[in-house]
Amino acid sequence: MSKDIKKIVLTGGPCAGKTTALVKVIEHFSSIGYKVFTIPEVPTLFSQAGMNYLTDNKELFYQGEKATLEVQIALEDKFMRMAEECTQPTIVVCDRGAMDISAYMAPELWEKMTKELGTSTMELRDKRYDAVLHLVSAADGAEEFYTTATNAQRYEKSDEEGLRQARLLDKKVINAWTGHSHLRVINNHEDFEKKLNRVLKEISFVLGLPQPIEEERKYIVELTGELPECIVSEITQTYLVAEPGCEVRLRRRGWEGKFVNVHTAKTPLSDTEYVQTERQISNNLYTSLLQQADPYRHTIQKTRKSFIWKGQYFELDLFSKPVDGLMILETKGVASDESVKFPPFIRVIEDITGNKKYYNYNIALRK
């Protein structure tokens, strides 16, 4: 590719605010000099054209989903080709992406379909998009705003059963994208504007624009009950030798026998801003870069459990190395003036927000 074009997926459960977010993205990034292409939601185009995804006709369902995936891929490829000819910096924003289609069918059917099309989950999930932003459905934590009126093609209703189905679908879509190196879950907020601003912030991050330094809220906790359905992953984090003030790390994340490696570099611009770059790397490069490990820091090993509770996204990390048994709960994207909706199965021992002693970078420090 002749220029650095970023392709970003906006996805989420039903009634998550994607349509409004897309308008905001176009307005904001166009105003700062970007050309913004948007790929429409292909399943909606098919529904409007007469496709019924709830049909009992299995062959019709299969051909409809296969055609949906083919058109999704073709549209994205054509717009990426057009983006290469643009003279200004360009982003392509997809209203849902290829992996969303997999959330609506059995895994074996998805595997059959991708094989017939000469592709795979790894190609479509890990290599095709620069970032995936999942907006949590209003059915989880913002029920009063959940409506089906804005989308005539929506199959979920706004009664209790409809809300339950919407929450379930929300989690299925997150599971479909789990493994992407830049999957970010965008919470519901008391103020919808904050949800939209978080979308702009995450895209700015992908574009390498300077970010304000903000502290996610962190707590030392203990578990007092069972976690809800969550994504469990094993994380190995190694810090590399870097320029003073800069932080460079390798992270290997494994779940269900699959692994993804990410190289991250964080450079401060001032006391209030930083630039962070992330890239997914191969196993060979990961192994090679380990030779640059910082001799003054241990490798961190921890088990992460990610889950949504009342529209807020949490990561619960249980450390095994270099400290054993430390459990830290981190909120993701909860605004500083909002209250954290702590789940009943979590007991907070200490608020460690902003406490540098508990930064991973410092936990790794050899004493």
Taking the alpha carbons of the first and last residues, their distance comes to 46 Å
Strand content is 25-35%
Strand order of the largest sheet: 6-11-10-9-8-12-13-14-7-15
- Put simply, the count of helices is 9
Radius of gyration: 21 Å
Helix content: 25-40%
Poorly predicted runs of 5 or more residues:
149-156
Task: Count the beta strands.
Answer: 15
Query: How confident is the prediction overall: mean pLDDT?
Result: 89
Q: Helix and strand string, N-terminal first?
A: EHEHHEHHEHEHEEEEEEHEEEEH
Biggest sheet character: 10 strands, antiparallel
What structural class is derived from the secondary structure elements?
A: alpha+beta
Description:
By secondary structure, the chain is α+β, with helices and mostly antiparallel strands. Helix content is about 30%, strand content about 30%. It is built from nine helices and 15 strands. The protein has helices at about 20-30, 40-50, 60-85, 105-115, 120-125, 160-175, 190-205, 285-290, 360-365; strands spanning about 5-10, 35-40, 90-95, 130-135, 185, 210, 220-225, 230-240, 245-255, 260-270, 275-280, 300-310, 310-320, 325-330, 345-350. The strands form two sheets. A ten-stranded antiparallel β-sheet has the order 6-11-10-9-8-12-13-14-7-15. The protein is globular and about 65 Å long. Mean pLDDT is about 90; it is low at about 150-155.
Keywords for this entry:
29% strand, alpha+beta, five-stranded parallel beta sheet, 367 residues, ten-stranded antiparallel beta sheet, 29% helix
